[in-house]
Amino acid sequence: MENASSTIDILRELNSKLVFQVDELRKKFAEIEAENIEECQKLDAFFQKYQIALEVAGIKMSKNLRM
């Protein structure tokens, strides 16, 4: 019975470690996702400025190049 008890204790400890790692990975994923959104917003602003500059210069962007 003692062997089963120690096995259960080991499994509980491993489970706790895994739960902690999953939580850390979720936090990191959320940070990366927020960074990606921010970078996409920066790119969108850049391309909007670029498109306006081209239009002022008399050049139209193809619809295929727009996202």
List the helices and strands and how they pair.
Elements: H1 2-56
Q: Can you characterise this structure?
A:
The chain is mostly helical and 67 residues long. The protein has one domain. The protein is 82% helix and 0% strand. The model has no long low-confidence stretch (mean pLDDT 86). Keywords: Coiled coil.
Keywords:
67 residues, mainly alpha, rod-shaped, coiled coil
Shape: rod-shaped
Main sheet record: none
Number of domains: 1
> Terminal Cα separation, in Å?
64 Å
Radius of gyration: 26 Å
**Low-pLDDT sequence parts:** none
Strand residue percentage: under 5%
Number of separate helices: 1
State the assembly state of the protein chains.
single chain
Helix percent band: over 70%
Average pLDDT number: 86
According to DSSP, the number of beta strands is 0
Provide a compact summary of the structure.
Keywords: Coiled coil. Residues 15-42 form a coiled coil. By secondary structure, this protein is an all-alpha fold.
